[in-house]
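Hi R.,

As promised on Friday, here is the backbone we talked about, encoded as structure tokens. Could you run it through your design pipeline when you get a chance and send me back a sequence?
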């Protein structure tokens, strides 16, 4: 079950995402602000990162370094992104032992399996989930 989430407009024109348990995130259109599509890309990268964390730590150790970069292809005619690309880089140079080529291949395979099994953001984007909207005007 997911947390109850909502967004509220702030006096300065930015928006704040909130949850029942106190999480907060400010976003908007201005300089230094993430916009909603970027937040979706961050969600995808974050899901990938968390899905692969165990495999990476198990193979390299908890001090491992990794980066997930997400880019997208925007279709102006459709007003939507037609594709997202993720590039995952894992720095295994700090591992207790130098990984063999076989261990590198095995880690890459485990990471891909974890992503394909556990990344719900990826699953949701790929399934094109319908969105239902209800508008209420208080007057």
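Update: got your reply. Pasting your designed sequence below so it's all in one thread:
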């Amino acid at each position: 079950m997911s947390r109850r989430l909502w967004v509220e407009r702030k006096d300065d024109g930015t928006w704040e995402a909130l949850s029942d348990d106190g999480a907060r995130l400010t976003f908007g259109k201005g300089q230094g602000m993430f916009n909603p599509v970027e937040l979706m890309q961050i969600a995808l990268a974050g899901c990938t990162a968390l899905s692969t964390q165990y495999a990476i730590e198990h193979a390299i150790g908890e001090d491992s370094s990794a980066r997930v970069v997400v880019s997208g292809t925007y279709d102006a005619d459709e007003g939507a992104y037609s594709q997202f690309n993720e590039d995952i880089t894992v720095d295994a140079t700090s591992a207790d032992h130098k990984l063999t080529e076989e261990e590198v291949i095995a880690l890459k395979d485990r990471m891909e399996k974890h992503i394909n099994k556990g990344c719900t953001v990826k699953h949701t984007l790929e399934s094109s989930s319908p969105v239902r909207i209800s508008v209420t005007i208080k007057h």
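One thing I noticed while checking it: The two ends are 33 Å apart (CA to CA).

Thanks again,
M.
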